[in-house]
Amino acid sequence: MEKLVESGMIDGVLDITTTEVADEVVGGVFPAGPERMDRILAREIPYVVSLGALDMVNFGAVETVPEQFKNRTLHVHNAQVTLMRTTADENRQFAEWIANKLNRSTGPIQILIPENGVSLIDDEGQPFHDPDADKALFETIEAQIEQTENRQIKRLANNINDPEFAAALVASFQEIK
């Protein structure tokens, strides 16, 4: 996607799932790479960002989870994918990583925070529901993002998968494009 943005073929981005940042910071199997977001921000195109799936780090089959993570909360998604719940400290690191990127841009950006969960399995009653870890992510994003006329944060009382949240993402994009 970022290569398409760089080529000029894409003139705006809704970046809802940023889980690759978790894998980049913690050491999962789908890392973003240190350049994640850079091409989008360099073009200064309308950019709506959310925090999708930052509650998880991706690994392969359960037996491939590194030894240091074996005692963490794990969710076997399928035979090839095991997800590990992120901690409050890790979520602070993700927020700082994202904020360091977004604070460099002068293009129009809106960051939408889904207060009731960043994934389906982060919803109340689900295996990754951890309000303290989510709170660390949300509060750090708010503390670290330098809000300007072109860079705003919105909190919404939704799970990221709620239809109302999807509508808010689209409305935010239409607002800044």
Overview of the structural elements:
This protein has 177 residues and is α/β, with parallel strands linked by helices. The protein has a single domain (2-55, 86-176), classed as Uncharacterised protein family UPF0261, NC domain (Rossmann fold), CATH 3.40.50. The chain is built from 6 helices and 7 strands; from the N terminus they run αβααββββαβαβα. The protein has helices at 2-7, 19-26, 38-43, 88-102, 131-144, 163-176, and strands at 13-17, 47-52, 56-59, 74-78, 81-85, 109-114, 151-156. The strands form 2 sheets. A 4-stranded parallel beta sheet has the order 1-2-6-7, covered by helices on one side.
CATH architecture type: 3-Layer(aba) Sandwich
Supply Rg: 16 Å
The average pLDDT is 97
The fraction of residues in strands falls at: 15-25%
User: In the CATH hierarchy, what is the superfamily?
Assistant: Uncharacterised protein family UPF0261, NC domain
Q: If strands are numbered along the chain, what order do they take across the biggest sheet?
A: 1-2-6-7
